[in-house]
Amino acid sequence: MNTEKIDTKKWNELLDKGVEDGAFPCYASAVGRGNELFFKSIGGNRALYPTKLPLTKDTLFDMASLSKLIGTTMAALRLIEKGKLSLNDRVGDFFESCYGKEDITIYQLMTHTSGIPSFFHMWKMNIDPRDAARVILEHPLSAPAGSSVIYSCMGYILLGKILEKICGESLDKIVQREVLAPLDMKDTCYCPTPDRICVSTEKKAGSDEYICGHVHDENAYSIGGISGNAGLFSTLDDCIKFASMISREGEGFLQKSTFDLAISDHTEKISSSARGLGFQLYRDEIYPGGQMMSRGSYGHSGFTGTYIYVDKDTKIFCIFLSNRVHFGRETDLFFERKLEFFNRVFSDIRGIEL
Q: Quick one: CATH architecture of 3-349?
């Protein structure tokens, strides 16, 4: 790509302005296509409270729901290719007591059409982590399975537990073997050791301490930090490896037919929310990756302020990592600045001869 036609300094200025304006404490960002990288930048502080600490290139970000895509989804797709899992497998194939949910399929879990609630406070129930699947299955559905899209953290926790049943080992070991090792993502992990440098996320309720080094998501934390919905920590460099792979349509990691199926729109007939297998797609609705991406663009976001998206037509990927919740959860300015950045990147790319 002829990047000389693009003033990437403007991208940096937007990101630095976001830090200066208090939209986000820090950022780590990259733009590229396949194995080509033509923008990479970090800035700001990994923590502002109680002590200002600068961001470093090896800082781990709490990936939040990007864990669904990088970890759980990719592991599931690899197991499907190996014949250990099928999209038609049912919850009842893995659990004896399903409380009327035995016919929910892997396909429905991965497309968020299972009807399982988006979220409930499992972390307040003081359960044994081994009982997470049972608690989710006991909980009433929010809609009949297959009838609508309900983006469900609980469904992905259940999917993670199914992968553990199939493999007979914990999800972190499955993801390490099936995803992180093949992609050479050496720094990405669940439950970082105390010596690792991590961004600080949100202030703990009723405390002056800030969450740092363990997963921000309450449900994932309550079951040990290794969960199908959240829990992965990663660096910008490792995210570049992942983004490069999905911008190459799975080359060297998944079969092309598997990847094509994963980024197909499986929910067009039932919802305005476009969903692939684990992927969030751009159709016509408001999209976290902005409005300048082509229809069918794909990726995912994380609640803490993490984003990886690929433009379907150009195969350009854009990564934006931050720790927006360091300022609390009501961060409208963050979303304004983030959308401004994504729109500027993909607007600049349009019209460039590829």
A: 3-Layer(aba) Sandwich (3.40)
